[in-house]
Amino acid sequence: MQIKVKTGGLLRRYLPEGSGSQCELDVAAGTTPLAVMGQLGLPAEDQYLVMLNGEVLPATQRGEIVLSENDELGLFPPLKGG
After folding, report:
1. Chain centroid to CA 71: how far?
2. Each residue of 39-78: pLDDT tens digit?
3. How many CB atoms lie within 10 A of CB 79?
4. Whether 62 contacts 38, CB under 8 Å
5. Is residue 19 left, alpha or beta, with left meaning phi > 0 and alpha meaning psi from -120 to 50?
6. Is residue 57 part of a domain?
7. CB count, 10 Å around CB of 80?
8. CA 18, CA 56: separation in Å to the nearest integer?
9. Total count of domains within the chain
10. Burial, 75: exposed, middle or buried (Cβ in 10 Å; 0-12, 13-18, 19+)?
11. Which candidate, 9, 2, 8, places its Cα nearest to that of 36?
12. pLDDT confidence of residue 30
């Protein structure tokens, strides 16, 4: 099935080459946001803002929620201010 993945900042480098800040990604049925993050090679120890269809997804649900066809997964670095 296909989902759309959007990123920001330095996370763009984890998308397939030439994707820019978003891409269509083929994933298996039953895939979770956490599995997509692993598939893309995002470092597990880093913190991310994860959104599913425009809603913030708490870290506790990233390995439990199952993605559906045409879902939009947003992966963003944490905002830092000073």
Report:
1. 11
2. 999 988 888 999 999 999 999 999 999 999 999 999 998 7
3. 8
4. no
5. alpha
6. yes
7. 5
8. 27
9. 1
10. buried
11. 2
12. 96
Looking at the chain, the whole-number percentage of residues with pLDDT higher than 70 is: 95
Per the CB < 8 A criterion, the answer to whether 15 and 76 are in contact is no
Entry pTM: 0.90
Tokens representing 70 are: 């045409």
Q: What is the CATH number of the domain that holds 37?
A: 3.10.20.30
Q: What is the DSSP letter of 35?
A: H
CB 72 within 8 A of CB 53: yes
Mean pLDDT rounded to a whole number for the chain: 92
Q: How many of the other CB atoms lie within 10 Å of CB of 77?
A: 14
Tokens of 40: 């893309």
Cα separation, 51 vs 77, in Å, equals 12
Position 28 in a domain: yes
The answer to the question of residue 82 being in a domain is: no
